[in-house]
């Protein structure tokens, strides 16, 4: 599988990748009856979002997608129509900028930055433990109620993954694995798909 474009999140004056969501998708263009076209193998979903937190509220700020070129006024989201991107090397045909759409989400998000240089690039979405910096954000009805830095736990998870890469490594590093497992107390408040403790 091709490496996938992930949603982005502006948080504390930095841009992060949304690596895990605990309670389903944050946003779906299908809720607005938008007809998407295939974007490419880099984005099987057909769209990419950018979020932020403003005054403690989760906000969708940008949506990039491939739409049919004939756009009725029903393609409006939060009063905005998408802008057509005619650039030859554009990944998507349309973009909604400055949406400022409040998202009523309850659950957790893992935001990650600085991919670890010692990991090979693979297909699909990257896991939080593949990054050096990760925050967990907790939302209730769209309001940010808590954030915490869980970077050290993700570094420990990465080491755990390396030690479990093969049966030979599991046997060779049995004591090291045991010590690391005892050290790894999960600070995560939520359970995430594709991420097991």
Sum this structure up briefly.
The protein has 197 residues and is of the alpha+beta class.
Notes on the protein architecture:
It is a single chain. With 197 residues, the chain is an alpha+beta fold. The protein has a domain of 76 residues. It is 15% helix and 31% strand. It has three helices and ten strands, in the order ββββββββββααα. Strands 1, 2, 3, 4, 5, 6, 7, 8, 9 and 10 form a ten-stranded mixed beta sheet that branches. Helix 1 runs antiparallel to helix 3. The longest helix is centred in the C-terminal third of the chain and has 13 residues. The two termini are 24 Å apart.
Summarize this structure as a short list of keywords or feature phrases:
197 residues; alpha+beta; 10-stranded mixed β-sheet; 15% helix; 31% strand; globular
Estimated share of beta-strand residues? 25-35%
**Mean pLDDT over the residues:** 82
Termini separation: 24 Å
Number of distinct beta strands: 10
Shape: globular
Order of helices and strands: EEEEEEEEEEHHH
For the sheet with most strands, the description reads: 10 strands, mixed
Question: Which class do the helix and strand fractions yield?
Answer: alpha+beta
Supply Rg. 19 Å
Could you estimate the helical fraction of the residues in percent?
A: 10-25%
Number of helices: 3
Low confidence ranges: none
Sequence-ordered SSE layout with sheet pairings:
Blueprint: E1 8-11, E2 14-21, E3 47-54, E4 57-65, E5 83-84, E6 94-96, E7 101-102, E8 107-115, E9 131-140, E10 143-149, H1 151-163, H2 167-172, H3 174-183
Parallel strand pairs: 1-3
Antiparallel strand pairs: 1-2, 2-8, 3-4, 4-6, 4-7, 5-6, 8-9, 9-10
Helix pairs in contact: 1-3
């Amino acid at each position: 599988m091709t490496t996938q474009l992930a949603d982005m999140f502006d948080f504390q004056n930095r841009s992060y990748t949304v690596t895990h969501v605990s309670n389903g998708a944050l946003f779906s263009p299908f809720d607005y009856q938008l007809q998407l076209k295939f974007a490419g193998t880099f984005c099987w979903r057909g769209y990419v979002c950018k979020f932020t937190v403003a005054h403690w509220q989760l906000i969708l700020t940008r949506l990039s997608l491939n739409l049919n070129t004939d756009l009725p006024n029903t393609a409006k989201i939060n009063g905005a129509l998408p802008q057509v991107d005619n650039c030859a090397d554009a990944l998507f045909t349309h973009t909604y900028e400055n949406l400022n759409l409040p998202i009523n989400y309850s659950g957790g998000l893992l935001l990650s930055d600085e991919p670890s240089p010692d990991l090979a690039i693979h297909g699909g979405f990257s896991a939080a433990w593949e990054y050096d910096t990760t925050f967990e954000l907790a939302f209730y009805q769209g309001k940010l109620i808590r954030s915490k830095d869980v970077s050290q736990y993700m570094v420990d998870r990465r080491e755990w993954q390396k030690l479990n890469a093969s049966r030979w490594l599991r046997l060779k590093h049995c004591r090291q694995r045991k010590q690391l497992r005892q050290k790894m107390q999960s600070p995560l408040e939520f359970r995430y798909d594709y991420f097991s403790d």
